[in-house]
Amino acid sequence: MSLLERFNKITERATRGIARRSSRRGFLGLVGATLAGTASLPLLPVARASSAGADAAPQSTGNPQDPGDPTTCDYWRYCGIDGFLCSCCGGTQNVCPPGTEMSPLTWVGTCRNPADGLNYVISYNDCCGKSSCGRCICNRNEDDRPVYRPAANNDIDWCIGTASSVYNCSTAVILGLATE
Amino acid sequence: MSLRNIALIGLLGCSSVAQAEFVPEAVGRTESLPAQYPAHWVMIHDFSFFHMLEGKVIVTDPLASDVGSQYKGTITASFTAAYTRSSARNEHYVAETFYSRGGRGGERTDVVSVYDPATLEVTAEIAIPPKRITGMPKDTMVGLIGADRFLGVYNFTPSQSVTIVDLEKRAFVGEVATPGCGFVLPNGERSFTSICANGSMLTSHLDADGELQGTSKTEVLFDAQDDPIFEGPAITGGVAYFPTFTGQILPIDVRGDEVAAGDTWSLTANDEKNWRPGGIRPAIADRSGAGYFLMHPHGAEGTHKDGGSEVWVYDLANGQRTGRIVLTNWGITLGTSGIGDDKLLFVTNTDMAVDVYTLPSGDFVHTLSVGGATPFMMRGAE
Lengths: 180, 382
Fold this sequence. Notes:
A: alpha+beta, 3 helices, disordered N terminus, B: mainly beta, Methylamine Dehydrogenase, Chain H, eight-stranded antiparallel beta sheet, 6% helix
């Protein structure tokens, strides 16, 4: 499915009301350029369609048990992520970009892997110590809860316990299978 | 005299006339603003999400028709800062963070910067412990306590506490531990309340010097896992109305030194349960007692930051809906300004521009483009 088709599918379901009142240019601009962070940008599920660029070739993990494109917001393990995808910033879905430091503290959620239908525990560690990457903004909020429940919140800048709290991008590290 | 010379004399004559009327302009001049802002002005906090160290608060005249008159001036707000202002003290306050090496870190310094409203110059800088929370903005990350004598600043390390600053003495007072609870909701004569992870609330009572005098805690007031309250309530008439993710309202009376929960009620009728509140700041109120909630029609798990296509208006004291404003553009956060019948509603849209509506009519006025990349919070002047 092309990016545009995916975009249309996602937005059609969730944002029918918006589409009636917003220009296409506005939507595409939003997808290409909007934000949210470790902090978040409530950009509707629209942000799920964000990618590094419309001309970029799709990527894969190379592992059929870990399906999807880690540079796109609808990659399965990003179901609660909020920020710039490290896969677009010099890192990967589970490794920080050069010169940054991965936060030892963060929140964890669970996402369902479509390859086996099982739920996995995902740790959304931020990469810290360089200015915001600014690419591939992604905001999905499954299992997200308010800041006063920090162990389940993606609004917090989780660059805590690192040399600098300046936020660069976010990863999604699989910790293990979730128990029911 | 040749024709050429006549022409030359003519040109010189014109030149001397123009020179006589020319008054050189002075260099080094700077504008200033009125000490008392018109009530409809609004402070737009550009969170600068893509360049977090470069945040700013833009003093704005939202009704001005031309671009130059809309933008009145800039207050810097470094690294996911928290902003508030005191009408009583007529000052701006920014709780912000600086790094000695900018984006790559270095020594961290947290301060409360005090700004003069007329000059927009820093009149005081109060150093606070370098532990204020950084992340997406919530209006309860700072709070004015004790008739605006003190400012509370929410800390997260991830241990939670509140820094107390004496705005009169321009001094750091101390740090109040709020274990398991976060945020600053001022209440009573000199107290503030924090929201706890188990659904209860913790109230910290300060003495006349801003030191902790004692604490008290409510019973569990809401289901923090299955239907949590948003961090920021709509506050009017001494009551903080907290919406939950599914659209219930939990009223918390903040007039006394002990907060008191009222009966919950719902924003939605039984046939409207697909509508839910959502956004960065989905709930605001004005002094008339009206509450405004940003609503989306596809409510489900995970949609609580989606913003909305409508703003629903309520008489909060009676829990009655009085109107629905269909937005011109999808909105992600709300703000308001003005008093009496001259009130405005601000809605940041998905193009990151601010749409202006009149209240109570809900009529769309125009879209502001003040250069803010991510205008997440908007606060009126009065």
